[in-house]
Amino acid sequence: MLDIIGIMKVLPHRYPFLLIDRILEMDNGKRIVGMKNVTFNEPFFQGHFPDYPIMPGVLLIEAMAQAGGVLAFLSYEPERVKDKNFYFSSIDKVKFRKPVLPGDQVRFEVEVIKHRSFLWRFSGKAFVGESLVAEGELQGIISNK
Q: Is pLDDT at 133 greater than 90 in this prediction?
């Protein structure tokens, strides 16, 4: 539905901090499904951890927030969010269930809990295959740059 070029038109993030590669599904104002291919070339694997590389959990949460940001932005008319950014503002109820390893493909499923004006609250889950690897509630706001 949206490739990396389309994602970069919505989010200001760039390598090495753009953490979603593709949007697979989206229902405006309600739900989004994104994906990341995790490779051994990721810069965080050099230090996390050299003998047992795992993707940092905080980056899984950041990727969920990025997917939520895409959903929020694309749920408005483009002129309404022109010259604005989506700022991640809080996390709650986060749990990390299993490690994410090089070679994994992570699917992020993010659903809107509520939103009012430019404030958005999401429930996010990260999966590798059918296994839940992380989950939490996220909040962000669309605001001026």
A: yes
